[in-house]
Inverse folding.
């Protein structure tokens, strides 16, 4: 076998039907990617945009509260006279960061647990899967509320962490990742179990290849596709949960703006200024639906033969 | 069957025990303690008063022995008093449970009335324009933050149109069912809209799988009408997975109810849990959390039992390992 042949990717089965499906899927994938990249660029260029258009997300200006949209304030101002557009951008930083870091962390935890369960099987598998079942059976939202409300000062953590400016950000990432790994763990375990049935695994083991190399060389590449899909879908889910907790006053703490905590005040002001409730929710909605559609499109792209679900 | 049930109850017992322990420890880590909150309300209290109160409430004991005390009381059916409401927590919970069950029941009903036909139709006309439309709508449904949906409904129906109350509940219990329904309308609409999308997707994928089976072709071949093929033969086989998912989804439904009740200020179990946790009301928070966990476990059990009942091929004896 020549080197070129060995490097060539395996041919995908390409019936006419699956090709059209993949093209359509690519369109969705492309569109959602463009939307998400634009959002990220805008959000992380927030300081630049602020200084460019002379806006302020943090500075109160009580003489200019509840301004309607204008050329100086694109989306108007809030109850403290802060620029809503600039706050949306900073809120976007928070939501996108929490969503992606949490989903990645959860994916790493889930992959490790799923791999261990799928490779070692036996009592290890039984134990880990009972643990996963147990966590899925817990009432998620009430538990998240408790975890988000506990006093960090009572934990054995150094002051430098608990007193940090971004502690509410770190905390929300940790607690959401703590409960977010179960889907990935089940998925990776199922894929691992089926990959481990292959004769090439037997061959590798017969050659005396270490478990670690079997996992990283043979198992991991085979579970990557479902892993990427699940992680993309979970980013949307995490952003939703973060916004719920922040809305309830337990997630991202003011003055740091997040789309969720911008809506907390908006509820009290809904009679006089209903539009304040519209923008942050719209941003959450667009971001989450983009991640969900992207995940679905990736599923089609990786797996052209499975019917769309 | 009895052996299966026994092992399930044992498992449920373990989950409940762990849940109670975990919750107790976590609530112990909440900011301040009940005594701090009491003292804040009484400027004349001295340090000695605080120490005496702590002793009275047993708060000077280490966390583990407090948990042990709580557990042994709980096992005799004594769950203690709520600090926020000054009532036995059992009574309090029972009086609030009705609100949540009505909200969740009506929402589930409304969601199914819409999701069943939508999911079945989408599966039957798979890849048609209607299917794609339903699919995209579902994506919108699972991506919309439920509390924002609530705010939008409030600003439309309460603020702009003025048809319905923006929240709360009928204080006067004799006001009649009409008034009660007016207060229920927006919360039920919120919760069902938040769940319809997920249900439709489950139903659609279960129906697609079911309609590909051989017996569907047989039914068509013997001349069944399309309606009979879809409902009697297709839906019959699609029901077990759908019922399972619905039963397993109880936790999500309850989470939705918590959000809905908090936004609309309805005195249900979800709002009670939220208030109890934030108000450092140990006994109340613990019992409500455990009650929800029990409900979820019952849901899981019902899922297994209904699966065996709807699909006679499944035997619970063999499923012992699962």
């Amino acid at each position: 076998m020549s080197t070129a042949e060995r490097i060539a990717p395996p041919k995908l089965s390409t019936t006419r039907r699956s090709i059209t499906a993949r093209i359509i899927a690519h369109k969705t994938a492309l569109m959602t990617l463009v939307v998400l990249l634009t959002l990220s660029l805008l959000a992380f260029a927030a300081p630049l945009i602020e200084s460019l258009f002379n806006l302020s997300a943090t500075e109160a200006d009580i003489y200019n509260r509840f301004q309607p949209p204008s050329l100086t304030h694109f989306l108007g101002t809030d109850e403290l006279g802060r620029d809503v557009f600039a706050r949306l951008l900073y809120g976007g930083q928070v939501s996108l960061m929490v969503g992606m870091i949490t989903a990645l962390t959860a994916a790493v935890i889930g992959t490790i647990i799923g791999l261990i369960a799928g490779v070692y099987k036996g009592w290890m598998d039984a134990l880990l899967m009972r643990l996963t079942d147990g966590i899925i059976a817990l009432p998620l939202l009430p538990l998240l509320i408790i975890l988000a409300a506990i006093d960090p000062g009572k934990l054995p953590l150094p002051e430098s962490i608990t007193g940090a400016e971004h502690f509410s950000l770190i905390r929300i990432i940790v607690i959401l990742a703590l409960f977010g790994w179960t889907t990935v763990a089940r998925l990776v375990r199922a894929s691992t179990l089926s990959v481990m049935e292959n004769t090439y695994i037997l061959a590798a083991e017969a050659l005396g290849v270490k478990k670690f190399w079997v996992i990283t060389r043979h198992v991991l590449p085979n579970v990557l596709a479902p892993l990427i899909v699940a992680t993309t879908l979970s980013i949307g889910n995490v952003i939703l949960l973060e916004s719920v907790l922040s809305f309830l006053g337990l997630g991202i703490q003011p003055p740091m703006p997040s789309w969720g905590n911008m809506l907390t005040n908006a509820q009290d002001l809904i009679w006089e200024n209903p539009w304040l409730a519209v923008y942050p929710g719209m941003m959450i909605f667009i971001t989450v639906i983009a991640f969900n559609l992207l995940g679905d499109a990736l599923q089609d792209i990786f797996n052209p033969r499975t019917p769309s679900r | 069957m009895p052996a299966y049930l026994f092992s399930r109850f044992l498992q449920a017992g373990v989950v409940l025990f762990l849940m109670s322990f975990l919750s107790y420890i976590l609530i112990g880590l909440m900011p301040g303690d009940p005594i701090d909150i009491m003292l804040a309300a009484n400027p004349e209290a001295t340090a000695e008063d605080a120490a005496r109160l702590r002793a009275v409430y047993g708060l000077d004991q280490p966390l583990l022995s407090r948990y042990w005390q709580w557990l042994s009381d709980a096992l005799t059916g004594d769950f203690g008093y709520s600090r926020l409401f000054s009532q036995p927590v059992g009574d309090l919970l029972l009086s609030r449970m009705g609100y949540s069950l009505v909200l969740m029941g009506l929402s589930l009903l409304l969601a199914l009335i819409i999701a069943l036909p939508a999911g079945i139709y989408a599966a039957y006309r798979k890849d048609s324009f209607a299917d794609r439309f339903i699919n995209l709508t579902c994506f919108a449904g699972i991506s919309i933050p439920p509390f924002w949906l609530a705010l939008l409904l409030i600003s439309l129906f309460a603020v702009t149109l003025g048809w319905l109350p923006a929240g709360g509940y009928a204080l006067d219990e004799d006001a009649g069912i009409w008034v009660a329904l007016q207060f229920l309308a927006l919360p039920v609409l919120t919760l069902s809209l938040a769940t319809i999308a997920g249900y439709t997707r489950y139903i659609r994928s279960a129906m697609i799988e079911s309609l590909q089976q051989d017996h569907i072709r047989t039914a068509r071949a013997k001349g069944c009408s399309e309606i009979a093929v879809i409902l009697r033969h297709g839906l019959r086989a699609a029901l077990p997975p759908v019922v399972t998912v619905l039963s397993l989804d109880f936790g999500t439904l309850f989470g939705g109810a918590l959000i809905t009740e908090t936004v609309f200020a309805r005195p249900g179990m979800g709002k009670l849990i939220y208030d109890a946790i934030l108000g450092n009301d140990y006994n109340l928070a613990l019992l409500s959390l455990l009650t929800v966990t029990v409900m979820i476990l019952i849901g899981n059990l019902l899922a297994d039992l209904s699966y065996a009942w709807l699909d006679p091929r499944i035997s619970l004896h063999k499923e012992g390992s699962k």
